[in-house]
Every structure is written in C-alpha cells, then in structure tokens.
Amino acid sequence: MTASMATPRKLVIFAGGKGTRLSELTSSVPKPAIDVLGRPLVSYLCDWAFAAGLDTVIIAAGYKQRELKRRMVDYYELAGDVSIGSERVTFGESRIPPGCAIVVRDTGGEADTAERLYAVRDLLGADETFMVTYGDTLTDLDAKRLFAAAAQADRTITMCVGRPDGRYGEIVLSGGLVQSFREKERPQFYVNRGFFVVKRGIFDQWKADYLSFEKQVLPDFAARRDVSAHCEDCWFHSVDSLKDVEDLERHLAITKPFGVM
Prior knowledge:
This protein is an alpha/beta fold. It is 27% helix and 27% strand.
C-alpha cells in the first residue's frame, strides 16, 4: 500500500471509446459528446465533479476527440455573450466555476482504459489522490461518503459498488404450469459502478503491459488485497442504447440536477 490518502481534487474520465452499441448517435461524435437535453453527456459528469468539490476534470479522449473538444467549448464557453471586434473576440461568463478547469487530452484513438490513464499521469500531482470514472455513466453519488470510505480503507484503489436494478419479475413453473409470480427484486450480488478513488502511487506499481483498467489493473491490485469496496445503492445510469438516452433525458428533466434548465 502507498502513503495515506488525501481528499481527491481531480477526476479522470475515460472518454475515448467508439460507443459501437450506440452507433445511431456515435457515427459522427464520441459517446461522451452526444446531445442530452441540449448539452454533451459528459458535461453532466463535469458539473457533478465540481459540485462534489473537485476542481479539475481531465477527459482522456480518443475517438473523434476533436469533436468532443468542440462540443465542450461550445457548451462551456459560448453560453454567454460573445463580442466580436476588429482586433479580438471576447467571451462572456463561462459555465465553469471559478478556480475550476476541464482538460481534454487526446490519449489515442485505439488506446484502452489503462493506457489512457497512464497517458494523463503527468496532469496528476506527485502525491495526489484522484478519482476515475467513465464518460457514459451519471450518478447522484455522494462523493464525500466515497472519499471518507477510501480514506478509512487506505488502499491504492477504492471502487464504488452497488446492486443492479431488478429488471424482471420471476415466474415459477412446475410441470408446464405457472405456479406463482414473484415481483422483481434487486439482486443481492454487487457490480462495479465505475467510480473509483485512486492513489497516485498506483503508477509506482504500474506494469508496462497494462492495457485495460478493468481487465488487468483492477484484478492485479485486487489479488494484492489492495482494492477496497464502497457500497452505494444510489442512482446510477449508464448510456448504451437509444432507450438509455431517452430514459436519462426523462430523469434529468424531472430531477433537474447539475443546473439542468
């Protein structure tokens, strides 16, 4: 284990995948940049991070990263007045809170998640603790609870886990006849919710052949008993289909988090 954990100030977002399961929307833009109620999907994550007290969001981009950059600039910098003069162009107030910043870095069109994390390591302080997540999942997770759990566990990685939603009810059959119905229940097993607190010291133990954060880094550190779990059953929503986008828009329109108008 590395040195004790400080409160994270930065969030790294994996945003470089091709989003092939949502090809209806991702043929021209990366999934984190798709339009959700008039703004890029990943911008909701940025606003969640700033509301949680983090001051820097590092977006590890790849597929169509230039389009992601354009959409983020359009949303955050073109929200207010734009004054066009003969010598310069000035912009009105940004949607980014004072003292906060978003950095979008091209980490390669074909890179996997571990490679993307390694490619932004220079943007993380020498002794810094940081967060990691994915650009297609939103949540109302209380980050302070996660930070406190990570500090108490004092492992290199703390991952947020939760029980998946129960999607289907159960029909009990016997001899070809329906015996009874059971209402859908939330399963008792836990799944990875995709939000992590990570110590900067992870790079001191980094292997040159790490490609995937999920398939290599997490299992490797878990085998060393260096991954703790923080259990949360709050709202999480991953976007993998058009229905997911539609469900998300309905939810955001009702709950209006992160400044949704």
